[in-house]
Amino acid sequence: MTPSSTAINPQAAPPTSLAALGKSLWRNRQLIAQMTRREVAGRYKGSVMGLAWSFFNPVFMLAVYTFVFFVVFKARWTMYGVLNQAYPNLEYFV
Predict the structure, then answer these.
(1) Model confidence over 22-61: pLDDT tens digits?
(2) CB 44 within 8 A of CB 53
(3) 3-state DSSP call for residue 19?
(4) How far apart are alpha carbons 91 and 83 in whole angstroms?
(5) Beta strands in 33-77 (DSSP E)
(6) What burial class does residue 71 get, using C-beta atoms within 10 Å of its C-beta: 0-12 exposed, 13-18 middle, 19+ buried?
């Protein structure tokens, strides 16, 4: 064991201060980066679009919801909304 490396003691209390947590994250940054890369690569390995799927999936869902609510249900935004038409003085109670 070299003097610059530290031994990990599983029985030691975990760091409780924010500074200790930051130091621990900084010391283990290579491990965190390696595990993150492995997780992302493993998650999207069988996917055709890969990592881009995590961006396009919510965009596609937004397009579907927009179509359903504005074209199929013919929902429209009004100036005051439905709530203010039913209760015109609602702002006094809120």
Answers:
(1) 998 999 999 999 999 999 888 888 877 888 888 898 999 9
(2) yes
(3) helix
(4) 11
(5) none
(6) exposed
The Cβ-side half-sphere exposure at 9, using a 13 Å CA radius, reads: 6
For residue 81, how many C-alpha atoms fall within 13 Å in the half-sphere facing its CB? 7
| pLDDT for 64 | 94
Scanning the structure block, which residue is given the tokens 């109670």?
93
Residue entry with tokens 């997780």: 39
How far is 15 from 24, CA to CA, in rounded Å? 8
pLDDT tens profile 58-82: 999 999 998 888 888 877 666 555 5
Range list of H helices, 5-48 = 18-27, 29-43
